[in-house]
Amino acid sequence: MMKDFGVEPYLYPMPTYMIGTYNEDGTVDVMMMAWGGICAEDMVALNLEAEHKTVANLKARKAFTLAVPGIDTLPQSDFLGIASAGKVADKFARTGLHAVKSGRVDAPVITEYPLTLECEVVEMQNQPYGLRVLGRIVNVMADEKVLDEAGKIDAGKLRAFAFDQMRNGYYAVSEKVGQAWHSGAGLMKG
Description:
Elements: E1 14-15, E2 17-22, E3 28-33, E4 36-40, E5 43-48, H1 53-61, E6 63-68, H2 74-82, H3 91-95, E7 99-101, E8 108-110, E9 115-127, E10 130-142, H4 155-158, E11 160-164, E12 169-173
Antiparallel strand pairs: 1-11, 2-3, 2-6, 4-5, 5-10, 6-9, 7-8, 9-10, 11-12
């Protein structure tokens, strides 16, 4: 039997992504977000609250990085989602993480995150349901430790984690359980 829960944002898994921007003084700002993802071949969509300091940085710099954190950085990544840059001036410094300037966009690359998309802000849409930021991916960077023998990104090696909106938990995502466009192919017969 199914139980009704009404209108809730209960979809699983929700990604955990880290948005990297620069503050007006050039210091690094990183924010964890879960409401967004790929929306086209070379585009990402971020759904954010307009009051975030990160949003002011996006408006000013027109650039950001979007990284996938691994479970080895879960405490730091969670902190970057808890702490507000408007209230905690040394937010990024407290994590002990390291940043280098992107060579393609005006945003930081956090070296401990295994996968980073370098993005340009294309559009900021004020919608009745919140602010949507559309960004164009100009490059993808991956740490060599997450590459397979053929030099391709191995999702299992990312050691990524997903957010559980229902119980506010994080869950490791690493085991391959099937092959896209192949696992269900047998059902095409008949």
